[in-house]
Write a structure and sequence with these properties.
There is one protein chain. The protein has 217 residues and is α+β, with helices and mostly antiparallel strands. The strands form four sheets. Strands 3, 4, 6, 7, 11 and 14 form a six-stranded antiparallel beta sheet that branches. The protein has a three-stranded mixed beta sheet with strand order 5-1-8. β12 and β13 form a beta hairpin. It is globular.
């Protein structure tokens, strides 16, 4: 009986231990001069911040690159496409906001929330900050943004540093914004037309068509 209880205790420990350690760490290091986001004119960002995370679409592989600029055009469309900032899943929430160099690690992210092999991205806006309690209210007032596709999330107990450059070599794929040496310039956000504006434009088009028809008659 004692042997049975001892064996059972070992089995329980083995079963529980992996779950306790099933986590990963996502880090970002910003020197302030190398591997940084800049304004569309190449100027230092004085406001705004970063969101580092992943999309739950396509099994964590994220959307196709061509989705950016077509169906994904701003923060709202990122959220509706399944975007999650890694800070959602951890108690360690670094301040990835400008104007100070953006750096810090998000530790103890459950690997069930960020499985190994998920595609990671860096997203930058020139105003506002990430609102962890109400993500839809993040980066309010931004007029420019940049999106960079980086590597994959690590396996259990691993750490992935998500940067624009590694060893002074630009190491990401720009999806919104342009490479500038080892840095990346933001690109203007395209304003979404108000429904009223769109409707008035359509009506104006029909009115103009009617006038031209009467003139021909």
């Amino acid at each position: 009986m004692k042997k049975y209880i001892h064996t059972l205790a070992i089995a329980v420990v083995l079963a529980v231990t992996p779950a306790l350690h099933a986590s990963v760490t996502i880090s970002h290091a910003d020197s302030g001069t190398t591997g940084v986001f800049q304004s569309s004119t190449g100027a230092t960002l004085l406001a705004g911040g970063l969101s580092i995370g992943f999309f739950t679409t396509n099994g964590g592989a994220g959307p196709s690159n061509s989705a950016f600029g077509t169906t994904i055009v701003d923060w709202a469309s990122m959220l509706s496409s399944g975007w999650h900032d890694v800070r959602e899943f951890s108690a360690s929430n670094p301040d990835w906001n400008y104007p100070t160099p953006v750096a810090g690690s998000v530790a103890s992210i459950p690997i069930g929330s960020l499985p190994a092999g998920d595609q990671l991205y860096l997203v930058c806006f020139n105003a506002g900050s990430y609102n962890i309690s109400t993500p839809s209210q993040s980066f309010v007032g931004a007029t420019e943004w940049g999106v960079a596709k980086d590597g994959l999330s690590p396996a259990d107990l691993g750490t992935k540093t998500v940067n624009l450059s590694v060893s002074s070599v630009f190491s990401v794929t720009p999806l919104e914004g342009t490479q500038s040496g080892v840095n990346m310039n933001l690109t203007p956000l395209v304003p979404v037309p108000e429904p009223t504006t769109v409707a008035l434009g359509v009506l104006a088009g029909f009115a103009g068509l009617g006038v031209r028809r009467r003139q021909r008659n």
